[in-house]
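Contributing new records

If you add data, match the layout below exactly. Sequence lines come first and carry their own label; structure lines follow with theirs. Keep one chain per record. Anything else will be rejected by the validation script.
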Amino acid sequence: MQCIPNLCKQIADYWTRYDRKKSSVLKYKSDWLNQNESIPVKNISKKYQQRVQSPHRGRQKLDFEESSARTKRRRIAHLAELDESAISSLRTECEMKNILPADPDEVISLLMETAMSKNQYLLIRNFVNSKISFDFFPCYKRILNSKKKRYPENISVDESHAEVELQSLLDNTASSILELQANVVETVNDDSIENLVLIGKWGFDGSTGHSEYKQKFSNNDLDDKSLFVTSYVPLQLISKSGNKIIWKNPRPSSTRYCRPIRFQFQKETSQLSINEERYFKEKINLLKRSVIFIHNRNINVEHSLQLTMVDGKVCNALTESSSAKCYICGANPKEMNDLDKCLNKVVNKEHFEFGLSPLHAKIRFFEYFLHISYKSSVKMWQVRDPEKKLEVMKRKQKIQKEFREKMGLIVDKPRDGGRGSSNDGNVARKFFSNPKLASDITGIDENLIHRCATILQAIASGYKINAKKFNEYALETAKQLTKKYSWYYLPATVHKVLIHGSAIIEHAIISIGELSEEAAESNNKEIKKCRLYHSRKMSRIITNTDILNALLLRSDPFITGQRDLEKKDKSTLLESVYSLLEETL
């Protein structure tokens, strides 16, 4: 009978003796290995069992009851930490089970909103997915496949232009809106949902100052300094009876829904504007209704397009009128201040379709007050005398300096590259937002600036205007302007808003503010960004394809609808504006 330590010692001796070879031990000590041994088992104390079973080395761990007060507090704190960690881990695990991978369309919306490049997206995707150990962001290949599904059919691109067939673009837009409003379509049970009308606005505008790329044209007469863009913005999807609004554009003056129809690298001219209108009017006359299949029903969508995204230059070109004359009634500059004569003139109601162009109207009103201020000392509409010209120039410089110092505005300064002057919408907006300071700088009557600011805010607000109240307010403003500054003739745009504004508002099928041209103007900046940051520069055709695709994606109603919009700040409207509106805000 041997105890375990002795038995282990004997085995170790044999192992060493035969050079740690298992075969030698088995060969020479097989008899010893095959014999039976009895090993006595002793009673093991409780403390020894704890010591053997404990994973800790060193001094043995005492029971909780036998521990000191300090040890007990430490163990309790440790248990509390373990419990909190376990709870947190369990909570995270449960939350992860409820997380679903991001939808590719949602990711495309995020990419459009943040203007991320492919490389930036992949960096963020790898970082986030590795941190949460979960493929939350989809691979870029899935995003590319989703992008291709969003593009309309019948796209043509060459080195100097890119175009989407108008019918295809309208079909694609109607389908995207109905996809976005699928829940609304499903809840409407009557037949009115099956015959809808999509009201939209369209227009064209030229821009200059674009980058000139080191890519050759097959035609040496072409260049890429100037761009001429034709755009479309959907406004409302309503039932044909007109009693149900299925969808309404929440930002009609934003680039969010401004869809490109065609862009071409050409300088804007009167003839180009006339040709563009003729080209698309023919296409509009041939339009067919879009048939969209959704929720087991065919929905027919007709299209109504309003040519309102145009500025004064385009209006004059299309009506073959001089920029100094009113293209609606034909009044010349010397007749503008004779209000009775202007009101009795025969108007061409066909020209009401161009709307009021609120953005350019604001700039023209601003420049009207500027020129009155410059010439207030000489009180002449046209200054030909050299001494008086010098006097006007000195006052102009003084006013420019005060605008710079008091309001931070750069006024009436030419831009580099022949891109017009610094008088843009933002400068005009800031001028009219503070009539008192604007009056102190220019010397113009503060009440008149306030009245014009009221009119401009009303036509740009997007709310329905009471045409009768607007007419009374505008005519009274025109009377005060022509009385106080009778020596300076009303510009054509100011005349159009004050004299014909109410008639144009009545003619519009929706609120005049929704028909603004601002979306097309702002889209020129988006095109520059897309061309610079989101297009491949391998060839002109590839560059133009990428520009068009980027513009189509960022304006897709379904993609844009995935993004949250900030609420409009209605408090920015002047109190006097509310008296001109029909709606209660």
